[in-house]
Structures are given as structure tokens and as C-alpha cells.
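Researcher: I'm preparing a figure for a lab meeting and need a structural model of a single chain. I don't have an experimental structure, so a prediction will have to do for now. The sequence is pasted below. Please return the structure as C-alpha cells so I can convert it later.
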Amino acid sequence: PLTQADDRILRAADDLSAVAEWGLPLADRINDWVYQSMTYRYEVTGVRTTAAAALELGAGVCQDYAHVMLALCRACGLPSRYVSGHLLGQGGTHAWVEVILPTNDGSGDAIAHAFDPTHASRGGLGYVTVAVGADYSDVAPTSGTYVSGARGRLTATKRVSLVAVE
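Model: Understood. Here is the structure written out cell by cell.
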């Protein structure tokens, strides 16, 4: 799997768990750690790059940041999932992580808390979820084949409208 923890990730998970309380404090710490440990660079990784490989490289794009955070969260016992969608104001798709934690109100319910390790922030307004899964391979935004002449071109557009939710 793309988020399998190697020895380096397991050591980092142990270190992070030792200094932060399980739950949101630990997820916040992991989010910040990934942001500080990686440099955003295009074309140094691909869709099959593992979390371990991206961390070893110390660089990648949003899906790599998300994979590293997922590997760390899971190694720390934090249930988490990969989110693919859009961040309003950015041109392309974006990836972030949701950590699923109990509500602590005794109901047995849980809530997904969004974390964006690419920007060292919590998700919120402006994050539009398209799909969730274990990692990128579960939620690839497109699949298929396009064949054309030498001058062919494939373009895509997106439009997002916000509506009131009651």
C-alpha cells in the first residue's frame, strides 16, 4: 500500500506520540511535522510513490504530503483517510487527510477532522471533498485513455458553486 510505514515512519510516529496527547493534539503535531519535513516540488514523485519514498526524498506534491501524514496517523493509532477534492482558489485538484475521532459526548459518534499537511493547516471553508479512500489509488480523479493525433489536446474545466446546507 502507498501508506505502509517503514522504520523511519515508525520511529517518527513513536517520537510524535511521546510528545502529544492522542487525538487532535497528536493529529495537529503530525500535520505540522509533515509540513516541516517536506518541500513542495512538482515532478519528483508519481501516483505510485509511497509515503516512505516521499519522506525519504523529502519532497513531493499534496498527495505525497497526505500519504506521509496517513502513514504516521495510522502508525500512531489515529483512524484516518485520504481526501481528494478542490481547494478553492487553487487551479487543480488537491489532497488532504481526515482523522476520524470520537465526539467525546458519550454518544459513540465520531467526526472527521480535516488536516492539510501541504499548508500546515486544518481544513475548513474552501475545501470541497470529491472522494475519500485509504489512499490516492482509491480516489484517482480520472481514469481511462485518451488517444489523438499529434496535435490533439484534452482540456477539462471545473466549476464549484456553494449552496446553503441546513
